[in-house]
Records
---
Amino acid sequence: MKYALIGCGRVSVNHINAAVDNGLDIVGLCDIVPGKARLKAIETGLSDNIPCYTDYMKMIEDQKPELVAIATVSGAHAKIAVDCINAGCNVIIEKPMAMSIEDADKIIEAENRNGVKVCANHQNRFNDAVQHMRDALLGGRFGKLFYGAVSVRWMRDESYYKNDDWRGTWKNDGGTLMNQCIHAIDLLRWMMGDELTEVIGVTDNLNHPYIEGEDIGLAVLRFKNGSYGLLDGTVNTFGGDYEETLALFGQDGFAKLGGTCVNKIDEWRFSDGNDIETAHKTGIGENPPNVYGFGHRSLYTDMIEAIKTDRAPYIDSAAGKRALEAVLAIYKSSAEKRPVSLPLKNVATTDFIGLFDKK
Ligand SMILES: NC(=O)c1ccc[n+]([C@@H]2O[C@H](COP(=O)([O-])OP(=O)(O)OC[C@H]3O[C@@H](n4cnc5c(N)ncnc54)[C@H](O)[C@@H]3O)[C@@H](O)[C@H]2O)c1
């Protein structure tokens, strides 16, 4: 299957490796900065003959890839996605899928109109530990769900933001909830049954005065099934990335995933009392080299199969929109200092320009 990548920055290595591991025919790399795509090809050991571009439409016209991955700055995702979809490509879009509900809807509309597939890149859903939790949930082992809690306690310093001027801006990134925490927010919403009805959120910028977005976000979420969600996310953790955790509390079970990126099972207790299983499961986990984890490979495997067998990808465009919507709802609640009901209409990160600026 012919494959091309748009955006050759930090996360592009995960995409190239996933494409290679899945046997994709890489027909092009594109980055708007001249020379960057070629450098990435060399760095990742791709053939010298890989065509490299600065204009993604030229690449699509020349190479006609069946599958395209978009790993550019977040603010560019939606336009590039719609252009690729309209050219007949299936697309994997890095998170967040878009920066506004309107743009997410444009992607979904183009997907439906062109009969292609769109996958939202929330790769942590494929972590072993997350898959074990999902299986237990779908098997009914938690019983009635009471609440789910996620924590993202990471650290991003001044150099991280200053090296790339799009980071932390409302137009192209958002704050830590939209960038770092959206994976955990996706997992929380998905595990709790997707139907999020209300959000109470508080965000602030305590330690990164040079960015527009927040560096801490706290939220209470209310789900249609009567359960609750709890979130704390920050890039202010002294000493580096500490943890990304997800805990589910049910009538018949309690499980907690931990590690730096929900990559381990810390607790595993169920009323069916399978002690052997508990001993076995606790401590299960992968040890990825960074918080991006290993999930890109499985996400690609799934997307390729979805295209070949004409089924929906495991993480589809609707899932991407749901994660985006949850973050935007927290921002709106924080800006308006009141609970916000979902579904949201016409909210964009750019709505928040200036709203949180300290007087
Ligand atoms: N899934 C994950 O775990 C994960 C991890 C890191 C980043 N991301 C996401 O991936 C995206 C990229 O993040 P990054 O850290 O690699 O950023 P980065 O700044 O390192 O790389 C982005 C690249 O996109 C290029 N670019 C921008 N506009 C372009 C255009 N129109 N055409 C072609 N190239 C263009 C830039 O020149 C840059 O090289 C972001 O949306 C981010 O949220 C996801």
Note: The pocket of nicotinamide-adenine-dinucleotide is lined by residues 6-12, 30-33, 36, 56, 71-74, 76, 94-95, 121, 123, 164, 179, 292 (CB under 6 Å).
---
Amino acid sequence: MPDTYRKIVAHKYSKNFREASEIVSTEIVEPGPSQILVRNSFGGVNASDVNISGGVYFSDGNFPFDLGCESVGEVVAVGSGVTEFKAGDAVASPQMGSAYSEMLCRNVEQFIKVPHCSPEYLSVSVAGLTASIGLHEAGNMGSGETVLITAAAGGVGNWCVQLAKLAGNHVIGTCSTQEKAKELKSLGCDRVIVYSEEDLGEVLATEYPEGINLVFEQVGGQTFDTCVDHIAQRGRILICGFISEYMGDPQEVTGPRIYHKLLWKSAQLQAFLYKDWPDKITSHLEALIEQVAGGHINPLLDPKEFLGLESAADAVEYLHSGKNTGKVVVRY
Ligand SMILES: NC(=O)c1ccc[n+]([C@@H]2O[C@H](COP(=O)([O-])OP(=O)(O)OC[C@H]3O[C@@H](n4cnc5c(N)ncnc54)[C@H](OP(=O)(O)O)[C@@H]3O)[C@@H](O)[C@H]2O)c1
């Protein structure tokens, strides 16, 4: 066992992840009571990594702080009194500061056991959880509904497609390229709209004149406005994120307030952050892990290889270039 490990910390607030971050070396300590020491094998890249580095989630001015928010690794040592985990167990950690670190020494509540130390189970911990809590808890997803997922071929999006199909819905997904469309069709997406070739609003107006029952919206800007325009009577729009505005200043919009569009359709607008359902996190994670282990869900993983902490900023920029299909993973 070495004496030190490396991790990425933010030394200032900036949405430019590369500028905000630096790799530092830190001492390995013995896990205390109720703690475990984990060697990370995979770190998950998330759209919101730039919001975390930019001080959007918290801006208490305490520097440095650890970056990233999901990892999978193997337990190497356990503290006194720990009975839930043993050395060799594979664990996932959907926690702030977990992704870009070669090792983690934290309390047991920050980890969940997974069947294998593999990127599929990394994808469960934030992407799967977000899709599941969003659709089931915030969105009250039923079956036999028309469900629209934007950025459907992304880390969270591919989970949404699979969960909405498993629940027995008609699923529409948006993406930018035919290559992504092919992946979405293989996941069972009923109608893929390649928005670089087809106009989203026109397709929805022509093919779904009754509107959409449930929208899982992740892009923002004009995409969000189009979804609002095509919501069904008593439809629900979930705001999961708005990646198109993360890197710049918020767009100023002048126009009638949104209730002019929602009231006449008895429609709901529901924003959500999965962390605001803390009592549901464990049960959703356990169900998702079972679905992956049983082969009912096949998390989409982006094939581009990112190796080591040095590649993390490249991986974050790659995700924000919109080129990824599925979860972007950094391997350690
Ligand atoms: N609410 C929560 O608790 C929660 C938790 C995790 C993530 N999220 C949100 O979920 C969304 C997806 O996150 P993710 O990490 O899984 O990312 P991702 O979907 O894997 O990657 C982003 C995808 O967004 C699409 N996109 C559309 N417009 C874009 C733009 N202007 N710039 C860059 N990409 C654009 C691209 O796909 P196309 O090229 O196919 O359009 C791109 O591949 C984000 O909005 C994120 O903030 C929310």
Note: The mean pLDDT is 97.
